[in-house]
Amino acid sequence: MNKKVILLSVALFISMLSCALFSACDKDTNCYLDVLVVDETSRAPIPNAKIIISQTGGSVHDEGVTGADGIYQTHFSAPAIVNINATLDMGNGGERRGSNAVRLVEGEVKTVTIPMPAEIFY
After folding, report:
1. H/E/C letters for each residue in 29-88?
2. 73-100 burial string, b = 16+ CB within 10 Å, else e?
3. Would you say residue 68 has pLDDT above 60?
4. Contact between 78 and 1 (Cβ < 8 Å)
5. Which element (helix H / strand E) includes 99?
6. What CA–CA distance (Å, rounded) separates 27 from 115?
7. Is 111 helix (H, G, I), strand (E, B) or coil?
8. Are 35 and 72 in contact (CB under 8 A)?
9. Alpha carbon 29 to chain centroid, angstroms
10. Position 19 pLDDT exceeds 90
């Protein structure tokens, strides 16, 4: 009888240990990035700005457009330091530009604000 109790206790301990180990692997390792493009003077969100995210000498690259709220959301599978460039086509051959950089961290959402000056580049 004692051997059965000990054997069942060991089996229960091993099954609980394996459950604990497998559930520990569910950690979110993605890096999340929210890019907010705003007017430098009024701080109003700028919709339809083109966003280019890249890493100097690295393999990270993403492109997109801000929504009506001036935000572009994306995620990456590994931490990195990325450069973010935003441009807004002004329709007359010119564009407004802004940029920033950020360090992405596993499991965290980083929000980066890019102030865009009123200056138009041709």
Report:
1. CCEEEEEEEEECCCCCECCCCEEEEECCCCCCEEEEECCCCCEEEEEECCCCEEEEEEEE
2. eeebeebbebebbbbbeeeeeebbbbeb
3. yes
4. no
5. strand 95-103
6. 34
7. strand
8. yes
9. 11
10. no
pLDDT at 120 over 90: yes
Beta pairing class for 31-39 and 109-116: parallel
pLDDT at 14: 74
Q: Could you tell me the two tokens for 71? A: 């935000």
CA distance 51 to 87: 7
| Interstrand relation of 61-65 and 81-89 (parallel, antiparallel or unpaired) | unpaired
**96: nearest Cα among 25, 21, 32, 41:** 41
The single residue listed with the structure tokens 């802004």 is: 98
> Is the CB of residue 70 less than 8 Å from the CB of residue 36?
yes
